[in-house]
User: What shape does this take?
Amino acid sequence: MSENLDFLGQLDPDDPKQASQQIANKLRAAILTRRLSPGDKLPSQPELAARYGVARETVKRALELLRAERLIVTRQGSGAFVRAQTQRAVELRPHIEAAFERPHVTIDFAGFSGETLRDALAEALDKVRVGRLAPETIAVRVLISDMTVPMALPSRAETQADDPAVRERAERITRRAADGIIDQVAELGDLGLIRSAMAEVRMHRASPLFKLYILNGEEVFYGFYPVVERTVSIKGEPLAIYDLMGKDVPLFHYAVTDDDASHGTQFVEASRQWFDSVWSTIAYRYEG
Assistant: This one.
């Protein structure tokens, strides 16, 4: 990479952060401000080491931080590249499976129904059954909206108002997903395949507008539910409703790094605090 790299700045000798964290911060800022655009190749490790007057190992640690935040990808023999925009949305399933490689698995979910989580868990739990994954404990917490009470969404499109019949349909969907998660996790405990297996569902009265997954307290996946108008069958009759579309919603990934000030670390911590606050205050037990 031969162009001028002055936009990457210099290390601050008075900054208490490690050199690798400072370098990661410089590169992250360049990526987020589009000085380095999606698909761009980063300066090579030798170039960065020379620029900042550090060892290549220090640069490698900085790049690892950015890779953990899914800001860059590395290609063997080619170097590191800014993750393309189309790649920023991530697939949940492989990360769920990776979470099960830990001895103690924790998964928190907040959203509409948990259908995506149920299906992703099914694959990971199948691998536990056949011995390909062997966690010691599993704890799953699920926060979903209580569709037995009036909601802004989903709603009847014509009036934009709450409709009990529309909510009944949504309640069936959420119950299927919640019960599926509870049953899947409980089965592993009943079979004696895991020392401790727990799945708890709580409900609240707020409309679902986003979905949030927290894996092992270290990774967060976050996505918005688009509101769309569509026609569904309610008691055998077509009805136009405003609905929440969760299938194939882009999920964006944040991960804890060694830098407490990094965007990923702060987002994960804020997500955990938000989830715990709702769980311990306005949420109440789901009666399946």
